[in-house]
Amino acid sequence: MSSAPTVLHSEVASLYVDHHQWLQSWLRKKVGNAFDAADLAQSTFLRLLVADDVGRIAEPRAYLTTIARNLLVNQVRRRAIEQAYLEALAHLPEPAAPPPEVRLMVLETLVEIDRRLDGLPAAAKQAFLLAQLEGLSHAEIAAELSISVSTVKRHLAKAAMRCFFPE
Q1: Which of 10, 52, 110, 123 is spaced 20 to 30 Å from 144 by Cα?
Q2: Helices (H), the chain
């Protein structure tokens, strides 16, 4: 058995002991409650267990803050997507509302699509969503966004590459 996992775990444990309380306090100020702060702090340290550069961290607090901030941004985005989805469901008649397990699958899919589209220009995201969710044609999307059909095609190709062939 290799000693690499033992060394990694020892380095993460050392960082945890030295910085966990500070990170959790920093997060509590950002999110406004101890429960989310504790979850985000734990998730931050879990990320360290799969990182390959833990032994080379020169500024542990800056490193931990960067990971925690990214996790917080992801959490805020996920909650915004979840809230929008729940609001859309609230407008459906009761018999048309999907069961909880389907809701969860749809929510997870929406979050993943959002993650994959992250970094694309707003027009590309919008074109993709109009095509996929509204079923609009290229010409309809072009008219809606006031762009050319060829630009719509480029946007859809970029978005499709991100969704169907993630990095």
Answers
A1: 110
A2: 4-31, 34-50, 60-90, 100-117, 122-133, 138-145, 149-164
DSSP 3-state percent helix, strand, coil across the chain (nearest 5): 80, 0, 20
**Measured CA angle at 37 (ends 31, 42), to 5 deg:** 145
Q: Is the pLDDT of residue 129 over 90?
A: no
What pLDDT digit, counting tens, does each position of 34-81 carry? 999 999 999 999 988 887 777 788 899 999 999 999 999 888 888 888
Q: Encoding tokens for residue 128?
A: 């993709």
**Which letter does DSSP use for residue 119 in this model?**
T
Q: Which residues 6+ apart lie within 8 Å of 61 measured at CB? A: 19, 22, 23
Q: Residue 153 falls within a domain, yes or no?
A: no
| Structural domain range at position 65 | 4-93
Give tens-digit pLDDT for 90-109. Answer: 887 777 778 889 888 988 98
Q: Is 16 contained in some domain?
A: yes
Q: Which residues contact 136 (CB under 8 A, 6 or more apart)?
A: 130, 144
